[in-house]
Amino acid sequence: MGGIDLHLDALNALLTQRHSCRAFRSDPVPREQIEQIVTSATRVPSWCNAQPWQLTITSGTETDHFREALQRETQQASPNPDLPFPTRYSGVYQDRRRACGWALYKAVGVEKGDRTASAQQMMKNYTLFGAPHCAILSSPTELGPYGAMDCGGFVTAFALAAQALGVASIPQAAVAAYGPFLHRYFDIPDDRIVLCAISFGYPDKDHPANSFRTGRAALDDIVDWRE
Ligand SMILES: Cc1cc2nc3c(=O)[nH]c(=O)nc-3n(C[C@H](O)[C@H](O)[C@H](O)COP(=O)(O)O)c2cc1C
């Protein structure tokens, strides 16, 4: 087996081991490891090498205060994300969204149609699923959708680098829903758009919310081969 195969095996191992973690242990990730994760993530490409990502990263009591303030905010404010949320999920996109939601609900024991219990599970987003750290990711408004696109690559690389160190993570658009609050709380200037949060820490491996894995579409469903 050549070097390339070995590298691909290592990359595939990270890609398949990573999953969105929805229950964390409370013990912190050492600052040095967080720096390693962010440094690795910065290696992704960006249009004109603009590197549009900026992060606010919380630890310790800063995460706890943010968690509490965020939960209070959801009780008193309506969602108002900087980046408009998808207008709808239809067809296969709706199917995939539902499959993921049902797998989560089944894992945590929420019955289909139990709106109270599913809303309670959704609200766990605002506890940051118990994570000891949260990164708030923003991009310059003037770079528009391409800045956001570059930051999407950053999110993936962040999650993979974290996985390589045994650190679990979850990107959260649900947190970005409270845009004005995030700008106020973290002094994020108005010439930037908040894209998402990434909660991270060590996974609670025995928690039911971490017991399922999402599927992926077949290659022929996503590639139009021209040969
Ligand atoms: C930009 C982005 C935003 C997301 N926002 C949320 C969120 O707010 N809450 C949540 O539980 N999962 C969120 N997710 C996780 C997705 O549900 C998850 O990536 C998808 O179902 C595939 O599962 P996997 O990450 O475990 O492979 C988000 C993922 C991305 C990439």
Key words describing this protein structure:
227 residues, alpha+beta, NADH Oxidase, four-stranded antiparallel β-sheet, 9 helices, 4 strands, 47% helix, binds flavin mononucleotide, oxidoreductase, Nitroreductase, Nitroreductase-like, FMN
Order of helices and strands: HHEHHHEHEHHEH
Query: What is the gyration radius calculated from CA atoms?
Result: 18 Å
Which regions contain 5 or more consecutive residues with pLDDT less than 50? none
The fraction of residues assigned to DSSP E strands is 5-15%
Tell me the distance between the termini. 28 Å
Overall, the morphology is: globular
The helix-and-strand class reads alpha+beta
CATH topology of the domain at 25-86 and 127-210: NADH Oxidase
**Level-2 CATH architecture of the domain at 25-86 and 127-210:** 3-Layer(aba) Sandwich
Approximately how much helix is present in the residues? Answer: 40-55%
The largest sheet is: 4 strands, antiparallel
Heteromolecules bound: flavin mononucleotide
Describe, in plain words, how this protein is organized in 3D.
The protein has 227 residues and is α+β, with helices and mostly antiparallel strands. It has a domain at 25-86 and 127-210: NADH Oxidase (3-Layer(aba) Sandwich). It is 47% helix and 12% strand. It has 9 helices and 4 strands. Helix 2 (31-41) crosses helix 6 (144-164). The mean pLDDT is 97. Bound molecules: flavin mononucleotide. Residues 19-20, 22, 100, 125, 170-174, 196, 214 line the site of flavin mononucleotide (FMN). Keywords: Flavoprotein, FMN, Oxidoreductase. Residues 16-202 form the Nitroreductase domain. It comes from Ruegeria conchae. InterPro entries: Nitroreductase, Nitroreductase-like, Nitroreductase/BluB.
